[in-house]
Amino acid sequence: MLRQVRKMHVKAIKMRWLTGGVNYSYLLSSQDKAHSWLIDPAEAVEVLPELDEEEMKCIEAIVNTHHHYDHSGGNVAIAAALKKKGISPAVICGSRVSPGATEIPDHLQEYQLGNLKIKCIRTPCHTQDSVCYFAKDADTGEQCIFTGDTLFTAGCGRFFEGTGEEMDQALNRRILDGVSEPNWDTTKVYPGHEYTKSNVDFVRRAIYQNPGDNAALDKLELFCRKNEVSTGHFTLKDELEYNPFMRLDDPSVRDAVGDTAGSMTRAHVMDKLRKMKNSM
Ligand SMILES: [Zn+2]
After folding, report:
1. Gene3D superfamilies per the record (predicted)?
2. How far apart, in Å, are the Cα atoms of 84 and each of 33, 79, 81, 89?
């Protein structure tokens, strides 16, 4: 008899696309769809109509990647809507600044969601309460990470509550170590916003200016020309190939920030890169 292989599910829900926020909320579900997390459901009016009765019934937690309103602003309204249906999810957040938070995970704390194992990776910088969630399906080997406004495809978030040093730690130590090297090439990245196209434009203008300079960037650029949605299509290994914020020792990145001698600290390169991106 054939064993049916079912997969973990990630449903991306667009929010605030008409007003330029281009945010994503995600419904992460176990293979049998009996257990789900609803991640960053900031806009109740946009998220609730995207969920059917079955999906709502299985939501065990509302989860925030950080406290900004365009990620956490729907916590209370969605918890209230679910409560009317007899569903009482936990509200897992990086800090009590997120409205309605009931659980604050420690760095590397793990949760079980049906057959999925989820590791909380605390990545302070964009906000001090930023958390990335690394989910793993031991049966199928599928893996993904929800990175909020810490890691974007070909970019990273602004340093609102942190430093270049902290962003280097967040991206290049905490995320990479938390996921661990053998998993980099199979871990799909689900960021908090669809910023890929503008990130690619920045990387192309500022760093790898010619096609052929970075083959992975060429591929990503082509993908963005043909597709509006890039979330979930690229892995951590892809990021390591084209994301300058994860390539701080690449001579092309050092050149771009004016460090031809290669003598700047990584934190300094990170700060310079972020400033260049901010001013574009
Ligand atoms: Zn944010």
Report:
1. Ribonuclease Z/Hydroxyacylglutathione hydrolase-like (3.60.15.10)
2. 21, 9, 5, 12
* pLDDT tens-place string over residues 205-256: 999 999 999 999 999 999 999 999 999 999 999 999 999 999 999 999 999 9
Give buried/exposed letters for 222-238 (b at 16+ CB in 10 A, else e): ebbeeeeebbbebbbeb
Contact predicate 244/250, CB 8 Å: yes
Distance separating alpha carbons of residues 29 and 183, to the nearest angstrom: 20
Annotated catalytic residue 255: no
The whole-angstrom separation of Cα 185 and Cα 193 is: 21
Q: What H or E segment, with its residue span, contains residue 70?
A: helix 69-72
Active site residue 70: yes
Contact 216, 64 (CB under 8 A): no
233 is catalytic: no
Residues lying with their CB under 5 A of ligand 1, a single-atom ion: 68, 149
Mind listing the domains of the chain with CATH numbers?
9-279 (3.60.15.10)
What's the pTM value of the predicted model, to 2 decimals? 0.96
Distance 138 CA to ligand 1 centre (A): 31
Neighbours of 263 (CB within 10 A): 8
Cα–Cα dist 190/14, whole Å: 12
Tell me, yes or no, if 9 is annotated catalytic.
Answer: no
- The active-site residue out of 149, 168, 238, 271 is 149
Angle at 252 between CA 251 and CA 258, to 5 degrees: 85
